[in-house]
């Protein structure tokens, strides 16, 4: 039993608006029990012990013994949704210095230590934490309220050209003093140019926070895939076989690949992908060899999620034109799946937008015997997806996500992601002619203009 200064809570996912803020949400009464108040730092004790800012739970969660946290926080604490963790009030020391580096090889941080410090102000970090840089506020108020926030927009500009438009992730390499420290105004944040190995664990590229509008589907995925990957012993004890194969079906761009990646990273599994059409274009005999190798490697590195995209290209119904190669490849996949000994530790996810075109042999028990349909998102789903893809963008006041969701009927996740990317590029193109690329610093007046506006979205929709 935890002593009186500690409580045990069940981990739950964060709401989209809290992602990237280093905040966890707990019932106020429980917070009081451990002597903490909103704004205090609490220690989260999972496989690692980390710090987070305590926030009040949402009204609907009052009375529930849960703690809501985002995917990076879960990954940092070495926990996952549904697990129990211990929390207690933390007494972090003030950080005099924090050294950070890109979270992955090949990633670059263009930001200065000062900008990162401002982004992390008040947060508690410890060596090995992986954090993401997001715009703290995304409206013009930011410029008024946050002194120096134009740097954040400069950052957005620098980070987006010529690199990606995504979030920037970095690792805390060291802190002084050591242990859990809180970042304040006098902290010096030093940025290393190259990635440094500090995490024992891989950095998740994708977490459940990055998947929008698929709540029900995600909980099925977690039950069917994450549970056996994490706790194969449950299935042993019940004397039932964990699933080996799951079929995700839905229109292109609905998030099948994204969801498969998210469940792999949230369950601490490896992820390998086989592209159906690509593997079939190989020379005779080569497709089979490639697939066999992937299965062998997957078993060696278990737990592993093997993702077969466009599986209908490999395993079409027999009455459709099937060649000798298809027949052999299907037979081999079935044999490899039948032969999987790593109970639950290797799971094959097949993705298709034509489930009816699949060879029925693949859908028999012990093979791809469970199915999850990913539907085209409804309005609420589109809101969630748009929130995800604008998370790191400086949006102007006139952008109304609800309205955008209203006008994008029929858009799937990939369409919405492309729309946001295109709108950001529009904003960049608008200021590009005014920028002297030789200059070290960009004129703040130009940065004032660097907002993604409602018009940027409208124009992108037309093109
Ligand atoms: P599929 O495998 O179903 O064809 P993907 O997972 O490859 O679709 O989607 C492509 C991209 O579109 C993703 O990387 C992501 O940026 C975006 N996307 C698709 N679905 C979603 C979703 N449900 N939530 C957030 N983003 C999504």
Automatic annotation (TrEMBL):
Residues 108-198 form the CDC48 domain. This is Cell division cycle protein 48 homolog MJ1156. Residues 8-92 form the CDC48 N-terminal subdomain domain. Belongs to the AAA ATPase family. CDC48 subfamily. The lineage of its organism: Archaea, Methanobacteriati, Methanobacteriota, Methanomada group, Methanobacteria. It comes from Methanobacterium formicicum. Residues 242-378 form the AAA+ ATPase domain. Coiled coil: none annotated. One of its GO terms (cellular component) is cytoplasm. The chain holds residues 1 to 463 of 761 of the full protein. The keyword GTP-binding does not apply. The keyword Cytoplasm does not apply. GO terms for molecular function: ATP binding; ATP hydrolysis activity.
């Amino acid at each position: 039993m935890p002593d009186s200064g500690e409580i045990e809570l069940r981990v739950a996912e964060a709401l989209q608006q809290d992602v990237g803020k280093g905040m966890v949400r707990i019932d106020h009464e429980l917070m009081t029990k451990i002597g903490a108040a909103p704004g205090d730092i609490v220690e989260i004790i999972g496989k690692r012990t980390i710090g987070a800012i305590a926030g009040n739970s949402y009204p609907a969660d009052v009375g529930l013994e849960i703690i809501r946290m985002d995917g990076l926080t879960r990954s940092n604490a070495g926990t996952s949704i549904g697990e129990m963790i211990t929390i207690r009030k933390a007494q972090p020391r003030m950080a005099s210095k924090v050294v950070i580096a890109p979270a992955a090889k090949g990633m670059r941080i263009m930001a200065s230590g000062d900008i990162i410090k401002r982004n992390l102000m008040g947060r508690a970090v410890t060596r090995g934490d992986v954090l993401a840089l997001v715009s703290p506020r995304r409206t013009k108020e930011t410029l008024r309220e946050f002194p120096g926030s134009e740097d954040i927009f400069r950052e957005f500009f620098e980070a987006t050209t010529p690199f990606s438009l995504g979030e920037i992730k970095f690792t805390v390499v060291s802190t002084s003093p050591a242990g859990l420290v809180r970042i304040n105004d006098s902290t010096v944040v030093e940025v290393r140019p190259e990635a440094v190995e500090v995490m024992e664990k891989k950095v998740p590229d994708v977490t459940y926070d990055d998947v929008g509008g698929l709540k029900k589907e995600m909980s099925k995925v977690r039950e069917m895939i994450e549970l056996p990957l994490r706790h194969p012993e449950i299935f042993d004890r019940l004397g039932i076989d964990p699933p080996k194969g799951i079929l995700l079906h839905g229109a292109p761009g609905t998030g099948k690949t994204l969801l498969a990646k998210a469940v792999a990273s949230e369950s601490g599994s490896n992820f390998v992908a086989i592209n159906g059409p690509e593997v079939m274009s190989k020379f005779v005999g080569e497709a089979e060899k490639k697939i066999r190798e992937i299965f062998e490697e997957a078993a060696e590195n278990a737990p592993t999620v093997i993702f077969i995209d466009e599986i209908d290209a490999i395993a079409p119904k027999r009455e459709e034109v099937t060649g000798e190669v298809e027949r052999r490849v299907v037979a081999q996949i079935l044999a490899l799946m039948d032969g999987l000994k790593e109970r639950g530790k290797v799971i094959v996810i097949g993705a298709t937008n034509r489930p009816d075109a699949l060879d029925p042999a693949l859908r028999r028990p012990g093979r791809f015997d469970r199915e999850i349909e990913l539907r085209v998102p409804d309005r609420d789903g589109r809101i969630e997806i748009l929130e995800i893809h604008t998370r790191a963008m400086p949006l102007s006041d006139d952008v109304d996500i609800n309205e955008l969701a209203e006008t994008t009927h029929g858009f799937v996740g990939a369409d919405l992601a492309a729309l946001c990317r295109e709108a950001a590029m529009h904003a960049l193109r608008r200021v590009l002619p005014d920028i002297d690329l030789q200059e070290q610093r960009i004129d703040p007046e130009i940065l004032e203009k660097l907002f993604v506006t409602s018009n940027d979205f409208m124009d992108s929709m037309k093109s």
